[in-house]
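Action item from last week, closing it out:
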Amino acid sequence: MRCSYIENKYLALSANRKSNTGSYDGEAYIEFCFNDDIKKIEFDIARWGLNEGFTGLDEYVTIKCSRTSGSVGETRKEIDPKSLTPLKDNPQRITVLINEGEHIRISIKVKPTSENRNKGRIILDNISIYY
């Protein structure tokens, strides 16, 4: 999963770090599940810093909303992590309108490397979910 709350301020997803299973799968995510359909999600997002090792090749941040029981009515938005601001103290606001669904997954996927360093990081803040 590679998600943590750090510095008492940032929800960070770190995709380029060895997972709990010992593999370098290059993905980090957080999921939210609700009992009711979600209409919209808004959040602030940024790269942790300038040197996160993003290459832009097969790397993306995905916001996906679907039914908990499957992908019927799936809403999906992809963002190139290199396009995100590297200023974590001044993130950009993202709004995603949802077709239907009660399950949200925000993930980052990068080309994994064999180094055990916290790179490929994005931060999320001020998450608002409307239903």
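Closing note: The mean pLDDT is 85.
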